[in-house]
Batch of 3 targets.
Target 1
Amino acid sequence: MEEKDIEVLIYYYHLKLQETTTSFHRYLYDQINWSSRLIGIKGARGVGKTTMILQYIKEHFSNVDEALYASLDNMWFSVNTLYSLAIYAHTHGITHLFLDEVHRYKSWSQEIKMIYDSMPDLKVVYTSSSMLEVERSKVDLSRRQSVYHLYGMSFREYLEYEGVVAIEPMSLETLLSQHVKIAMDITSKIKVLPQFEKYQQRGYYPFYKEAGAEYWSRLQEVVKIIIEVDLPAVTEISFPTMEKTKQLLMYIAQSKPLEVKLRTLFSAIETSRETGLFLLNMLEKADLLMLFSTKKPNYKNLKIPEKIYLQNANLMQALTKTTDIGTARETFFLNQLSVNHSVLMPQTGDFNVDDQWLFEVGGANKTFDQIANLPDSYLAVDNTDMGYGHRIPLWMFGLLY
């Protein structure tokens, strides 16, 4: 293979790099051990995986042609192999291969293993759909790779991305013990509640800025691509099953946090329990749903939820015109806490975090009645900029990552 054979890839790479800005980094950027020989970055469409790897190239390579970026959904790969591209890179002074959308390439795991084993001085970074079970692919890469999951933007990141205020992420322990001091500092600089309202409507996916007024329609299109393109690329499903997946998602979107009667749910879309549970679990892996249960997940079996939420409040806005405020509050709390914590459904209250803390979520008039006298219990309260004691503003739970 000669340079003329990959000219189209090089052109596209340079164009993407030219368009990439480095003024804002996602939270995961500094957590990745970029020196690893093989790095996998999973995440939903639109959360910024591509931008992040291009930022790394732009900031760490004085000669950008010592690296090569390629998206595996490029038509070039319909007549060429990934391994042949790696051979070209290895023999032409390229030290790092950055591969986007690997789930769109059928034999990605086998060929990446071949690259890893035969070209030890060529480092590989790849991105994939959050649905891709990279740890359980046909070829075991678990001993060779470091895998990370990139979620959508936290409220803290949104504030920085908007140029409103820069806040360092904090631990949940710090937030619980110092929330009054932290809130006083932040609210002395900005009016936080209007910003929080904007974030809940259009701030989870970084592309909201470029999309402008078309953000929700663009987000609908992202959801459609996940179901119609990414899902079939990861698992073999029929067209009718794909259509049932859309029906299932919309049925849930139009409900309050669904107190799940699985028989009723699956009957509504005319599917079996087995297929219905499979689709629910795939939609959660796609970062479109959150399946909520009293039990910790058993990764060998399908999760059987007791409540179902859309994955974030922006999806609620995009998929249905009527958004229940209580649902939006609970969705935000579960979404933000689930990134770094185990969150289960308790017998009393709304959320059990790490089997240590109990939370009830509600509006400004929320009381402790439901969790009175329970140890380590807190209120996460909306429509208030500052709390006291165990009463903490809801927006502050967006400062954790």
Target 2
Amino acid sequence: MLNELLIVKKIKEGDIKTFEHVFRLYYSSLSFYAFSITGNSEISEEIVQELFYQLWKERENLNILRSLKSYLYGAVRNQALQHCEHLNVRERHKRFILSKKNNTPTDTPQEHLEYKELEEVINRTLQLLPNRRRRIFGMHRFEGLKYKEIAEQLSLSVKTIEAEMTKAYQTLRKEIEKYTYTL
């Protein structure tokens, strides 16, 4: 435990060699662990890469109260489960939309109007996004491309794509919350 506290202290101080050592030591086993939860090797690697990216980015604020190994495995577990939950929500939404299309319309005029208003809010918000962010968002959401594919097409890093998507979602979420609050 004392050795791990020293490792965390060195990482907090910006010791890149110690960070690289931890990365090499845990990357494979963390990826395998994430895979055991998600069943997708590409997603599993992205989860672990994002964990280490955030670990380095936020190193000065690290507050690890248990072992480093436990911290890393717990973070991977949480992200993998969150990814699975996200997939479940998307699948339920997809089934709901498909069931609505296959059934006779039961929307009230009020529901139809609210849907159209929300659609307008979303479209307006997308138009306000910076060009690159709007393009990346469109490639992912409307063309169905994965972050890696977008990164390759635009000659950007996957981390840049992730950051742009995060910012796009945050902007959309704020605007939708404003809209739903007024209902």
Target 3
Amino acid sequence: MDTIWAPDLSDYAGAKYQKVVAALREGISSGALAVGVKLPPVRELAWQLSITPGTVARAYTILTEEGVLEAAVGRGTFVAAAKTPILDDVWSRETKVLLGDTEGDISLFSPRMPDMGQIEALRAACREMADMDPLKFLNYPTRDAYRPVRQVVLDWLSDLHLGQLRESDIVLTHGGQSSICVVMQAILSGPRPVLFVEELSYAGFRRAAELMRAEVVAVEMDEHGMRADALERMARNHIGQAICLTPEVQNPTGGFMPLERRKELIRVCERHDLQIIEDDCYRMGSARAQAFRALAPDRSWHVSSISKSLTPALRIGWALAPQGRSSDLRRAAEYGYFGVAQPVAELTRILLGDPGVKQLADRIRARMGEYVRAAVNVLGRYDLSWDAEVPFLWLNLPSGWRAAAFCRAAEREGVQIRSADEFCLRDGRAPHAVRFAVNGHISLDRFEEAMQRLRRLLDNPPEQISV
């Protein structure tokens, strides 16, 4: 049925299209706009609200992509039965996948490592750990006790360009996300600190910032990542404290930030006294450029883990502070959790101390590359960004598909992927694109089958949605 609906936009904050979005959300949640109600045509509502039709169309499109509204060609725009946006439910859906409650679905949310020998290596490490001095399992972790663990991490990092680095500079954490949180605790100050991220960026940056009660500001990017001129403009308008980047493997697009772009960003950070947080968790192969910590040793923080190179099960990672700030980083970690669990630390020491561990990582990377190439063989005719040493792919959707609608269609086909919306700020404008990761837990044949399902969807887009 049709409805006459004309809210007072002065009751809402933000840009005009954001006010319309907020008003629609409130109307739906309050019951004023019931499921199945047909919304006013774009031009009619624009005239009633004294705004442009493009503003109304943008609001309708945002909520249509989220599944709050649905549009039918030639009929109009309606309140959808499914009112929960895909963004709000993604973590619960991923938790179901991790717990195995998927009814045969194939999860391509996050990379999953194939077993190329690391299971047996961990079993052997557990057996060795069982014969250790039992008192190690009855004491609190201490900085001195973990020196051998930090030393094997230092050896693991020896082929990277990280600048001057000592064992004592390494702070062990509960994985990469924990590293980001610890670094932000060491950096941020004041009641409402500001962080800059790329307009498409790892959602963990935003979630860590929320815990710090920080404001996150998106900065325009191109194929090489954050643009220096855009950061300059944002830094003039916001008193920021840090920027967050994934330069070796941009998450989610898989892009690489060349050395010259890194130097341009450093110059901006020096002018505006910004710290640099570099997340290196997704790199599986050799680094292609110097890390920010080597290029700007007085303001760069480096975080990584073994989750994408060996296994995420140990939940072990590390953070490196700029020169002169190691004590700040250690203090944040020790005040937060004393230290990683002794058994986890010892397993890490044994695993990374194995002379063959880097060859093991090479085998994992090579096998993951086979999955990537299988995906390219099936989907290569489309606008696909990929690298054989990156465990996920980025797909710009063809005309006729929107990201949220494509993810829902893929899920109906038993394939779970991520929408570009999950990598931008809530008020940002995401491209019609998706990210899907390599799942090395399933056979290559089954992975190819998932790619074929995606290919059939891409080959048969729905009719164009008109709002």
